[in-house]
Amino acid sequence: TFPSGKLDADKNILTYVANPSTGAMDLGVAIKGEGSFSTSDLEGTWHMYMFETDPVGGSSYYAYGNFTVDESGNVTAGTYIPPAGPPINVAGVTLSLDDDGILSGSIDADGGIKITFPSGKLDADKNILTYVANPSTGAMDFGLAMKDGGSFSTSDLEGTWHVYLMETNPMAGSYWLYGSFTVDGSGKVTGGTYNAPDGTAVNVTGGSVSLDSSGVMSGTVEAEGGLTGTFPSGKLDADKSIISFIGNDTNGSMDLGVAVKAGLPQSSEDIGGGGGGGGGGGCFISAMSQ
């Protein structure tokens, strides 16, 4: 069952939360199968945001960073930043895309860690890459990478954003949240509401976000109960309609989120036919724990 999802204005990328009948909770990104691709489409610098779960250690957390790829799919530089501990450098790497834009390959990182990508998908505009990965540590990753390029300012955030995120908390485990928030031209968060899996709705009361000239986001969102979510990093795509981000809150939660800008109303035909956070998770831990 899908409580909510949002199709982007280009009608190529669908972000959603879901509830399997097993009792699990999912966050997903679906990319429409259009376009023609080659490995050279990976050339450039990518901003990566991911959610990792470690069955052996029994923990989940985010990581984010940047990596640079040449036209042959070799990662020439890269660094991942975990929520605790030093940055992790990427060493020898080879990635590739097939004709349909499906990613495969592996990355070698500090400490002898190898990260293998069973699958990923590049969007038709060749700016957004979603993927799953298996580090040799036994963990499992879900991520979204946004390509560098374009010129940005905080005013690009003005509008209403539909937010979907996966949150992990030491007290409550991992779960999804979704909702929407509005931002004015100066980056002030003027309102919004987030929904938790138990049906709790929490109002956004304020906050401020900003973009640098590369489209990298930082800021905070405030909600009922005096809770604050902080964004160490996020990235707006070149079309200025999708943000991938990671966040922390005052209850110790960690989030991976995707925000999709509101556009013209969509129809169900857009999913199959032609056509081309947020981070208020901290807002809910208090409500869900009480």
Trace the largest sheet across and list its strands. Answer: 4-5-6-7-8-9-10-11
List the total number of helices: 2
- Overall form: globular
Uncertain runs:
265-271, 273-290
**Largest sheet report:** 8 strands, antiparallel, barrel
Query: Which structural class matches the secondary elements?
Result: mainly beta
Distance between the termini: 26 Å
Rg value: 18 Å
Mean pLDDT: 89
Written as H for each helix and E for each strand, in order along the chain, the element string is EEEEEEEEEEEEEEEEEEEHH
Report the sheet-strand fraction.
Answer: over 45%
Question: In percent, how helical is the residue content?
Answer: under 10%
Structure description:
- This protein is mainly β and 290 residues long.
- The protein has two helices and 19 strands.
- The radius of gyration is 18 Å and the shape is globular.
- The strands form three sheets. Strands 4-5-6-7-8-9-10-11 form an eight-stranded antiparallel barrel. Strands 12-13-14-15-16-17-18-19 form an eight-stranded antiparallel barrel. Strands 1-2-3 form a three-stranded antiparallel β-sheet, with no helix packed on it.
- The relative contact order is 0.17.
Question: In summary, what is this structure?
Answer:
The chain is mostly beta strands and 290 residues long. The protein has two helices and 19 strands.
